[in-house]
Amino acid sequence: MRNVSFALAIGFALVACGGDENPAPKAPETPAVAATTPPTTPPVEAPKEEPKASLAELQQKTMRGMVAATNARDAKALSGFYAEGGVVKIAGAPADASGREAIAQSYGKLFEAFKDYTVAPSRVFVKGDVAVVEWAFNATHTGDLWGIKATEKKVGAAGVDVLWFTPEGEIKEHHVYYDGGTILSQIGLSKQKARPIPALAANAEVVTSTGAPEETKNVEALTAMGAAMEAKKEADWLGAMTDTVEWDDMTQPQTSKGKAEAKKFFKAMTTGFPDAKTTVVNAWGIGDFVIHETTWTGTHKAAFFGIPATKKSVTVKSVDIIQYKDAKLAKGASYSNGADFMQQLGLMPKPGDAKPADAKAADKKPADAKAADKKPADAKAAEPKAAPKK
């Protein structure tokens, strides 16, 4: 009875709402589903190649690595920055170091002689595949050096590296210039006055070639100046300089300043070595600078800064870094091995022969001798004969 009454009650409600007495059962409603876009698979892209480092970037990486390896005194790591057939040529040295093994041995000997050897670049000049680096080192003489036993004395000098790079940033050729005479003076094997131990630069100035016409003009100006020296045209030679010209010959204890000093050098050079000739090996115009790599030859036929004529012939390799201002030579620095120059004149013992007593005996006029080495490097900077390479 309760079930019937419940059924009627439902029927009444449906009629009252307008529904059929016997409605068809409704199908269950399906919840609405929002329309969606089928996911798409992103296209497969070829792996991107890392951009290749430029030669300039590779050069910088190699040079930074060399400084770090040098200051770690790691000869093997240093040799790894050279190409397999790389070569190191040191001005005044009896032989080159060719190949990584020989280069590692050469650096190893350096670090045996100076166990605390520390170097820092001061200026870097870059043009194409060539970099020229000015640097200075500080060290203590702690081991055998050119056959000379350790003196435990502090030493230091400035120098220049000329580096040629492969496209991969490895060094294929390396020329080194520094004054061995400075070191001999500092360890007491020569009475010649040496330059003071240099401070190490905290940062290096970088000068990169722009290819501007002025770079070529500066090289041409230096070529003309060299021709004036060989022709003994003093007025033309001096006229190529500024009135306040300065020159640092790194074999000399101090800087030469002004045209009066330059004039003294011109006279000493043209009378002491009247047959002097300079061959320009390389010349690069880089910004306001000219880098000059030369080989200088001459016969010591008359007194040269107090040294009587020896009648001996000399061949000296040098690199000069010259700055121009308003198309005139304003400042320069010359790097070569003054000890090699003096040895060729017979005024200093050769490497392996030097002993403190012998060296002092051979160096009878050290002050004059060092002054005498005012030197072909100065002349070299001023007297290119051949057309410079660009």
Please give a structural write-up.
The chain is of the alpha+beta class and 390 residues long. The chain has 2 domains: 55-208, Nuclear Transport Factor 2, Chain: A, CATH 3.10.450.50; 213-382, Roll (Nuclear Transport Factor 2, Chain: A), CATH 3.10.450. The protein is 32% helix and 28% strand. The protein has 12 helices and 13 strands. The chain has helices spanning 2-16, 55-71, 75-79, 100-113, 180-186, 213-230, 234-239, 258-272, 338-344, 356-362, 366-372, 376-382; strands spanning 82-90, 97-98, 118-127, 130-140, 154-165, 171-178, 205-208, 241-249, 256-257, 277-286, 289-299, 313-325, 328-336. The protein has a 7-stranded mixed β-sheet. Strands 9-8-13-12-11-10 form a 6-stranded mixed β-sheet. A hairpin with a 6-residue loop joins strand 8 and strand 9 (256-257). The protein is globular, with a radius of gyration of 38 Å. The model is unreliable at 1-25 and 356-390 (pLDDT under 50).
Give a quick rundown of the structure.
The protein is of the alpha+beta class and 390 residues long.
Search tags:
globular, disordered N terminus, alpha+beta, single chain, disordered C terminus, 2 domains, Nuclear Transport Factor 2, Chain: A, 12 helices, 390 residues, six-stranded mixed beta sheet
Portion of residues within helices? 25-40%
Distance between the termini: 121 Å
CATH topology of the largest domain: Nuclear Transport Factor 2, Chain: A
Q: Number of folding domains?
A: 2
Please tally the β strands and state the result. 13
Number of helical elements: 12
Query: What percent of residues are in strands?
Result: 25-35%
The CATH class of the largest domain, by name, is Alpha Beta
